[in-house]
Amino acid sequence: MTILDGTATARRIREEIAAQTEKMVQQGRRRPHLAAVLVGHDGGSETYVANKVRACKECGFDSTLVQFENNVTEKELLAAIDCLNKDDAIDGFIVQLPLPLHIEERRIIEAIDYRKDVDGFHPVNVGRLAAGLHCFASATPRGILELLRRYDIRTRGQHVVILGRSNIVGKPLAVLMMQKSYADATVTVCHSHTVGLRDICRSADILVAAIGQPHFVTQDMVKPGAVVVDVGTTRVPDAVSPRGYHLEGDIDFERVAPRCSYITPVPGGVGPMTIAMLMQNTLAAAQGEYY
Ligand code: GUN
Fold first, then answer.
1. Which residues are catalytic?
2. Which residue puts its alpha carbon closest to atom 7 of ligand 1?
């Protein structure tokens, strides 16, 4: 069994991006610039955004953090998005999700100029991805595929089972996995109402869990020799940890890992790869790669 080291792989990718940034700067172009919009004080979101800002520094990018309190109105948020859309110094930006319940997430995402939508959440990018056209693709699915690619793990013709159908992970991952020019795999997407879930999971050559329920995937759901990817990052209260919590994935790692050929850890698997892919999307935005 081999651990898929997302931390080390993401570090290498950030170094590659930093080298490309310096090349751009030497050619007299300005550094890529990512902005992040953060609403409220959700611990997970604050950490993710801080990690994204740190990754920008490591890649030689400029970054801007736009922060609002929890009681921000939809109108105020839309005005901030309008400013970022119009600001020529900003190559791309993200609005960290989830947003407070009084704000309609779809309306915010649709207000982002799709040419700056480095998260790949805007319907134009979602649609172009589904059609197999050039576009910004969601960072977590791209991170998973890049991790598999860098470990030379075959996807062509393999049965990929995805647990979870979210707009951020499950759906775009299914699209990328089935695309001939990308992973060329055979894909099954499962969810909370799937009948015969255990047997479907057991038929997976590559099993991806993205449901946010610690220890959901047990040993009996995994075929011996399978590749297992854990997207879950649930904060579980932990009095012993200095932070007061620890992260748990969706996989019962202790029991599942010995059965696998490859497995991602939590933390240190998919998480850092997601941020590295956001940096790649930002570089692509600065280079006008898609639009
Ligand atoms: N919340 C959880 N994952 C993500 C992500 O990839 N992007 C944004 N904007 N919010 C998230």
1. 52, 96, 119
2. 96
What share of the chain has pLDDT > 90, as a percent?
Answer: 100
Going from the Cα of 218 to the center of ligand 1, the distance in angstroms, rounded, reads 27
Find the DSSP H helices in the chain. Answer: 6-26, 43-59, 74-86, 105-111, 123-130, 139-150, 170-178, 197-202, 253-256, 270-286
Q: Following DSSP, what letter does each residue of 124-173 receive, concatenated?
A: HHHHHHHTT-S----HHHHHHHHHHHHTT---TT-EEEEE---TTTHHHH
| One-letter identity of residue 67 | Q
Distance CA 141, CA 175 (A): 9
| Residue 108 CB less than 6 A away from ligand 1 | no
Q: Do 262 and 228 touch, CB atoms closer than 8 A? A: yes
Q: What is the mean pLDDT of the chain?
A: 98
Structure tokens at 95: 């609005």
The owner of tokens 């979602």 is 126
Considering the entire predicted model, what is its pTM? 0.98
Q: Tell me the C-alpha to C-alpha distance, in Å, between residue 268 and each of 7, 149, 195, 232.
A: 5, 17, 32, 12
